[in-house]
Amino acid sequence: MGKYDNDVRRLLELVGGKENIQAVSHCMTRMRFVLVDPKKANEKEIEELPSVKGTFTQAGQYQVIIGNDVSVFYNEFTAYAGIEGVSKDAVKAAAKTNQNIAQKIMGTLGEIFAPLIPALICGGLVLGFRNVIDGIYFFDNGTKTIIDVSQFWAGVDSFLWLIGEAVFHLLPVGIVWSITKKMGTTQILGIILGLTLVSSQLLNGFSVASTPADEIPVWDFGFAKVQMIGYQGQVIAAMWYTQGLHLTSDLYSQRYLVFCMRRLL
After folding, report:
1. Rounded to whole angstroms, how far apart are CA atoms 241 and 150?
2. SS3 62
3. Is 122 assigned a catalytic role?
């Protein structure tokens, strides 16, 4: 007899039985269910079970909080129910069938931007620190910043801009890489596409407003002219152009053609 035998039996009954479980997995503290019909789960009675600390539904998954003993509970549950557990990624994939369009879109965006969060946090902290040392007037009766009176801090401010620019100005590279990674296409092609969008051959996107129209470089194809403008700091453009990488599975020349046509348009 298992440690959680009674709760396991009762939980299986309260989630609608074996036939109502599409997939099940667990994380550090929670059982993660993908239910065929989530309405069959009796949430009130499930939360009254001694082993259960609470329940909630997120991203199409019905999650039951067990605590630190979740792995033991999970093993007893799957053994009793006669269900083979799956990975968390498999549960996420199965959970998409219970999501509406808005939830699927938000879930996809979350998976794309999650790998970029450490870089964005680092870049934000760097730029925040720069704003303090070059934007707050501490010295000479509030007329000078620390970089005005110290060459060392002026050098630090200049050096930190290298990191800040890499994170935010070159953001399309990270976005395109993350999208290609999620969708299972060739990641190096995504990186090359991102580098193309911020190439030094193109006019920096942040400089367009201060550049006279007749000085913006163009590609002249005879029948049409296309402005050579980069996409520094852009998110939507990077996501849009990346879709060209997924229209065919093996013909890389066709993928590049799609990208070029979208760039011209």
Report:
1. 45
2. strand
3. no
Q: Output phi, psi for 43, to 5 deg.
A: -60, -40
Phi-psi region of 17 (alpha: psi -120 to 50; beta: other; left: phi over 0): left
Strands annotated E in 147-230: 218-220, 225-227
What is the number of other CB atoms lying within 10 angstroms of the CB of residue 72?
Answer: 14
Instruction: State which amino acid sits at residue 61.
Output: Q
Structure tokens given for 65: 């909080």
Convert the pLDDT of each residue in 38-61 to its tens digit: 889 999 999 999 999 999 988 788
Catalytic entry in 27, 109, 218, 251? 27
pTM: 0.61
CA distances from 221 to 48, 175, 214, 263, 264 (A): 72, 30, 17, 13, 10
Q: Which residue has the tokens 């229209």?
A: 247
Rounded CA separation 187/241 (Å): 14
